[in-house]
Amino acid sequence: MAATAIVAMAQPAQAGVGDLLVAPTRVILDGGRGTQIILNNIGEEEATYRVTAELRR
């Protein structure tokens, strides 16, 4: 079974607003049904983010 890598890229909806912690930044799914990714706004202000998952084979 081929492994699939998911790379999460988070960008603030407005440049310079907030700080987003993404952990882990790379996930390899090698037959498992899923995994856990932590998203945490570590900034002082509330912010909106757009998160993209990139699937590679």
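(ticket continues) Second input and output from the same batch:
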Amino acid sequence: MVSRENTKYAMVSRENTTYAMFIRENTKYATVIRENTKYAMASRENTKYAMVMRENTKHIMVIRENTNYAMVIRENTKYAMVIRENTKHAMVIRESTNYAMVIRENTKNAMVIRESTKHAMVIRENTKYAMVIRENTKYAMVIRESTNYAMFIRENTKHAMVIRENTKHAMVIRESTNYAMFIRENTKNAMVIRENIKYAMVIRENTKYAMVIRENTKYAMVIRENTKYAMVIRENIICHVY
């Protein structure tokens, strides 16, 4: 049961929350936020149990932009089939993913993403089972520009997986990173900051388990809007990790 204002079982607040359930808009049982999510339950609008998506879904976790476990779809999905338009058995997200199948349009069993991927097959439009990329590839390591060992980022990276927009379990940053997880917008369990950070978790908007702050932080939990396990304030705060 989810509504824009209130919720049933979870602790929900439009601005901040206390324990685990937080969402700028609404949630039911899972941890839901407007942009990213904790355990793959995320929806910009509403969710049911583990089914989350902007429109509708059945058994998987769905968020509008990126996801944790590789099932992602901007619009809707059914079971493990996710794509912006349609797909069969793969995980699909609009932009990119780490271990799942990603494709902007559709794919069958391969990993597909619009720009680059780590260990999967990559293609700008669609592919079936092979490794595909618009520019070049080596051993399933694909990036639009260059890569090291399945690390991919739009610009460059060292040991982590990096992509410009979103990723699942890898390290993500918009530009570059060292060993931590970075991402400009959203991430699940990694460290996130808008620009860069070393070992802390930072994200401009929301995060689940990490420390969050609008600009940057080291080890504290800060977030402009909302967070789950950390302290939440609308502007910023610094505190210890539970």
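Agent notes: The two ends are 29 Å apart (CA to CA). Residues 1-242 have pLDDT under 50 and may be disordered. Closing as not reproducible unless the customer responds.
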